[in-house]
């Protein structure tokens, strides 16, 4: 059967309404999980996680395997990721040995025979690892988990093109990876200098071409808007240059300047940043330019070519969201390894220590390094489902809700429906009585809509999160 076209799907088109954006652009979570990570508590410990993993094992089914590889050779000043800056490559092997010790424990807890449908190496910079260390890690996983080789596996890795040598991509391909994402951010030399990330466009192009030749699919590039010295004109040039490279997917993230939370950002001077008005213009132009270039707008911050699996999944209502952003895979339980990594089961989230020496000490003592988490109540799971529907499908069907949860939507969410009224009046979302459907003007503000159903954000905006746009 031919896949649906964008017009046939239930997706709202997109309208830019600046007055509404200003009214609703408060700070809020990105909902890569619900409850969000700020709700994790230290009262949730290893015993709780072991029980959650036991329930997951009993339920069975495929798993997703995430590894956090924190090392980077250089510091990008904007960076908000959990990373360790070092030039010492010999740190990689001891780290990976510990990851394998942790993997041995988790494989027993979650079940070694469950198919690993999704696998992701994130960071930091996974390609900081020398070739033999990458091979050692994957060989170890091969013994501990049921790795897959079928075409429908989704094995992806984040690549910093500055950390790619002549063997890197071939090695990754031979290890079973079939998808990559390249960090780019901006190709403008002035911007690159200001964020301490010198990466000539030719370098990105060479990596992309080699990846294509090897057979990697769904190649993604990460861009960030709102960086120092960016202007609408400079970012338009960056986009032209990136579109010429013709990646299958693009992630376009908003830079949030929070130097109190992310120390490296103190190296960025506030007065070099684009103004909020300029930032809005950059975003508006970016969406228009990418739509003109034939990309489809995915969720709230991704773009994909119409034949890419992410675009097909969105048109067919099969989009999902997890810690890596939007994906095509249904929610597998997530086994997560390495410093700061977050695992997930149907009814729990749990996170490793984000301090490298503390994580190492726990593993060396033969223990898990979980230090916080949250067990999900039934209400959490209901709200996670609702927020997932809104942020991925942009609609919520009351009959589907009742089929899924055995509850009457209007009774369960009386208060939320009242608080949704101004958004309905502003045409961010429409209520037909059977379906809540996000409208074109509400698409960019989907996080504000989701926040209405967030039990922990009833008070509205919170300074702990970046602004929505
Ligand atoms: C772990 S990095 C990608 C892999 C590799 N370390 C690199 O930089 O090429 C993940 C992505 O997060 C995004 N990112 C990092 N810090 C950010 C920030 N403060 N605001 C928005 N996006 C950010 C960047 O787009 C970056 O490519
Ligand atoms: S953006 Fe990537 S390479 Fe740069 S510091 Fe962050 S994790 Fe490392």
List the helices and strands and how they pair.
Layout lengths: L17 H7 L21 H14 L3 E7 L1 E2 L11 E2 L6 H19 L4 E9 L7 H14 L1 E2 L6 E6 L8 H7 L4 E7 L3 H6 L6 H14 L2 E9 L6 H14 L3 E6 L21 H17 L3 E3 L3 E3 L4 H7 L4 E3 L2 E3 L5 E5 L4 E4 L2 E5 L3 H9 L5 E6 L2 H16 L1 E3 H8 L3 H4 L1 H12 L3 E3 L3 E4 L7 H7 L17
Parallel strand pairs: 1-4, 1-14, 2-3, 4-5, 4-6, 6-7, 7-8, 8-9
Antiparallel strand pairs: 9-11, 10-11, 12-13, 15-16, 16-17, 18-20, 19-20
Helix pairs in contact: 3-4, 8-9, 12-16
Bound molecules: S-adenosylmethionine and iron/sulfur cluster (SF4).
Structure summarized in a few sentences:
Helices cover 37% and strands 20% of the residues. It has 469 residues and is α/β, with parallel strands linked by helices. Residues 72, 75-76, 79, 81, 83, 123-125, 160, 183 line the site of iron/sulfur cluster.
Structure description:
- This protein folds into 2 domains: 18-27 and 377-453, Arc Repressor Mutant, subunit A (Orthogonal Bundle), CATH 1.10.10.920; 46-375, TIM Barrel, CATH 3.20.20.
- It contains 16 helices and 20 strands.
- The longest helix is centred in the first third of the chain and has 19 residues, at 92-110.
- It is 37% helix and 20% strand.
- The protein is α/β, with parallel strands linked by helices and 469 residues long.
- Bound molecules: S-adenosylmethionine and iron/sulfur cluster.
